[in-house]
Amino acid sequence: MYVRKVREKLRKENAMKSDPILRRHLPETYPYTSVTARKMIRKYPSLFIKPNRGSQGKGIIRLRRLHYRKIQISWGLQHREIPRKKAVQAVQRLMKPKRTYLIQQGLELAKYKNRIFDIRVYMQKPASKWFISGKVVRVAVQGRFLTNYSQGATPKTVEEVFSSIYKNQPKIASQKINRINALCLALARTMDRKFPGIRELGIDVGVDRKGYIWIIEANTAPQFNTFKSLSNKTMYKRIISRRRTIYS
Hints:
By secondary structure, this protein is α+β, with helices and mostly antiparallel strands. Helix content is 33%, strand content 28%. Strand 11 and strand 12 (213-219) form a beta hairpin.
């Protein structure tokens, strides 16, 4: 079976923006230019600069406003404080020549045990219908700004994390999970219309400190080792089973 991959983040971003409901859940994102960077530095407390083609968090740069005159620039495991007026030049020195980048609004993500997290929703289309094959929370290493499993994040179940952050509020936790499911199914159908032939999606979902749900990114060649690390292998086995159908 032919399985399509879409590597460029900006193409996928534009596809998602075409849906008015999804658009409300997308962080502000643009192709990187120095002019756009200066505007967004003034507008948001934090920003992410990402390679247009890339995975596993490689090459991502974060800018975080410390106060009016200073910005922290982070890449890999390194952090440096720089004058705000020199932020754009500092970013451009870290960029690889001939690569295109995007710039994205940073989010104030909710925390689990004082560590930020996001949710990887693994979607598959083994025949004519999209299914959510699994959801896993990726809890970042203390002090790190990326939640990728390849960057050392700890996998947890959605139920475990949501029952912790929404203590004694099981109804709200359930509503959040249902809303995430609905958004991801809508996203899969939108992407399918724009890019016929995609069969798998790894959707990264964030919940901010106010409880708002954000769609951070969608990947058409998602990794699934995070699911293998959970003690319950049900979701991992489901993903493998459906992949056999997809790639048969």
